[in-house]
């Protein structure tokens, strides 16, 4: 850990809404520049903006932890990189390879996540040190603290979902550290259950600090959808409780978000294939069309872009036969289809006027209710999303007859809804679904758990190192 946490503290020089991408380094050795940065209110706001900007990095949610590596692992694309001949090569975690080179991507994503977490902790440290003196409004101070806590929780939870165990099988397995201090000290690997509760502690505190936003309508406030607002934090709580299989709390928070956030399920994706109007929280990627051109762009010649074959698209979205002109998630507003090449590519990051990378969208709350409610009630929440997407009520699912049937239905719906958003792989892991469309024959549940990076194993916390540091 010492080797690669806090190699530098990066802060943005302008607010997120400015679109400025200039950065400067804050030395962790002297904190001289940090002392200058945190002497003004704008400095604090720039530091927070820097957290969001850094989350759009390729190693974070600008690729690996969103539509990129995770959706490749879920086999949602037919693009296989040069140097690779089979789909199962992406599950080679232990050695460096040509093509996917998943080992490198996992190591870089781990490093990037903890770097952002270190920046969160640095911001929180300076809020404690002189926030009251520099920032006059207590509400503004609360907002800064809440968003830093929420970002820290969001990243730790995704680290848990990736590097932690299948939670329902063994929540006591040690997996990742939960870092709350801005230094390079070695921190112990906590159990999955301990990490989940620390995530919830941060989110509860963030909700308390943002309670002034309870009457906020996100439909009327576009800018707050680009930040961790009150309802985004509550939606993340619902996600965490669902992962933990805590039905009562998952249902409580999901229902509250649906009832009070001001957002509604959209019935069209024309001009908005990423459905930004359903986003409870999203990241803004500066100059998205330019920065995404190597991943999503108009064809018909694709080399590095995340394309899908027409046959796979029709299977995943059930867009054949009588349902070929129903679900708007598979129609021309959602995909550019190239009939001659039998390929298609998602419009989500091509026709995206808001430059939005979704972190949490409203349909997930309906899916949480579908999974966590009693079987006889769950189907209505899936139907609500399906009806909004274009399915007639005559095709509604009457009820979930058993858990296996519910899992099958949810599998198909989550796969369609969150295509190119990085959520489907974690759904598969949560439910230990080891067979899915285009899944290689050798896939097993062990592939859901990412190994610790080599540097973490070599330099991270051990019982011996803890004893040595105590003796100092």
Task: Describe the structure concisely.
This protein is mainly α and 472 residues long. It contains 16 helices and nine strands.
Provide an overview of this structure.
The protein has a domain at 9-230 and 446-458: Serine Threonine Protein Phosphatase 5, Tetratricopeptide repeat, CATH 1.25.40. It is mainly α. Helices cover 43% and strands 8% of the residues. It contains 16 helices and 9 strands. The strands form 4 sheets. The protein has a 3-stranded antiparallel β-sheet. Residues 1-32 have low confidence and may be disordered. Strand 7 and strand 8 (343-346) form a beta hairpin.
CATH class bucket of the domain at 9-230 and 446-458: Mainly Alpha
CATH topology value of the domain at 9-230 and 446-458: Serine Threonine Protein Phosphatase 5, Tetratricopeptide repeat
Radius of gyration, in angstroms, nearest whole number: 22 Å
- What proportion of the residues is helical, as a percent range? 40-55%
Q: Secondary-structure map with pairings?
A:
Layout: E1 9-12, E2 23-26, H1 32-37, H2 41-54, H3 69-73, H4 102-134, H5 138-163, E3 174-176, E4 190-191, H6 192-209, H7 230-243, H8 247-260, E5 279-284, H9 288-291, E6 307-309, H10 310-316, E7 335-338, E8 343-346, E9 356-361, H11 363-372, H12 375-389, H13 403-417, H14 424-430, H15 454-459, H16 463-471
Antiparallel strand pairs: 1-2, 3-4, 5-9, 6-8, 7-8
């Amino acid at each position: 850990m010492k080797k690669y946490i806090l190699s530098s503290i990066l802060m943005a020089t302008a607010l997120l809404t400015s679109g400025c991408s200039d950065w400067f380094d804050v030395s962790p050795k002297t904190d001289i520049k940090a002392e200058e940065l945190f002497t003004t209110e704008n400095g604090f706001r720039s530091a927070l903006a820097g957290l969001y900007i850094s989350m759009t990095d390729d190693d974070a949610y600008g690729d690996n932890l969103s539509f990129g590596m995770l959706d490749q692992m879920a086999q949602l694309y037919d693009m296989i990189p040069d140097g690779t001949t089979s789909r199962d090569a992406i599950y080679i975690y232990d050695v460096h390879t040509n093509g996917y080179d998943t080992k490198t991507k996992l190591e870089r994503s781990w490093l990037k996540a903890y770097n952002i977490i270190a920046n969160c902790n640095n911001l929180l440290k300076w809020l404690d040190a002189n926030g009251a003196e520099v920032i006059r409004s207590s509400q503004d101070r609360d907002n800064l603290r809440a968003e830093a806590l929420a970002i820290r929780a969001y990243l730790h939870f995704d680290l848990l979902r990736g590097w932690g165990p299948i939670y329902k099988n063994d929540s006591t397995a040690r997996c990742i550290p939960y870092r709350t201090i801005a230094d390079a000290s070695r921190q112990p690997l906590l159990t999955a259950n301990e990490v989940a509760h620390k995530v919830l502690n941060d989110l509860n505190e963030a909700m308390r600090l943002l309670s002034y936003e309870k009457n906020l309508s996100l439909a009327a406030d576009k800018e707050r959808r680009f930040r961790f607002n009150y309802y985004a934090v509550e939606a993340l709580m619902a996600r965490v409780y669902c992962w933990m299989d805590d039905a009562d709390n998952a249902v409580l928070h999901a229902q509250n978000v649906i009832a009070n956030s001001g957002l509604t399920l959209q019935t069209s994706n024309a001009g908005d294939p990423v459905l930004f109007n359903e986003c409870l929280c999203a990241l803004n990627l500066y100059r998205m069309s330019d920065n995404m051109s190597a991943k999503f762009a108009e064809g018909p010649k694709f080399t590095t872009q995340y394309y899908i074959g027409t046959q796979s698209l029709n299977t995943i979205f059930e867009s054949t036969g009588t349902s070929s002109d129903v679900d708007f998630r598979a129609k021309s507003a959602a995909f550019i289809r190239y009939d001659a090449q039998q390929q298609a590519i998602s419009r989500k990051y091509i026709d995206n006027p808001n430059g939005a990378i979704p972190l949490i969208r409203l349909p997930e709350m309906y899916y949480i209710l579908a999974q966590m409610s009693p079987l006889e009630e769950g189907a209505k929440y899936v139907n609500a999303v399906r009806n909004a997407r274009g399915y007639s009520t005559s095709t509604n699912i009457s009820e979930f007859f058993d858990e296996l049937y519910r899992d099958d239905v949810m599998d198909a719906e989550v796969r369609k809804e969150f295509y190119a958003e990085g959520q489907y792989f974690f759904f598969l892991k949560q439910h230990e679904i080891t067979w899915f469309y285009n899944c290689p024959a050798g896939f097993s549940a062990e592939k859901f758990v990412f190994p610790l990076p080599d540097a973490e194993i070599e330099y991270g916390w051990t019982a011996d190192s803890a004893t040595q540091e105590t003796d100092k």
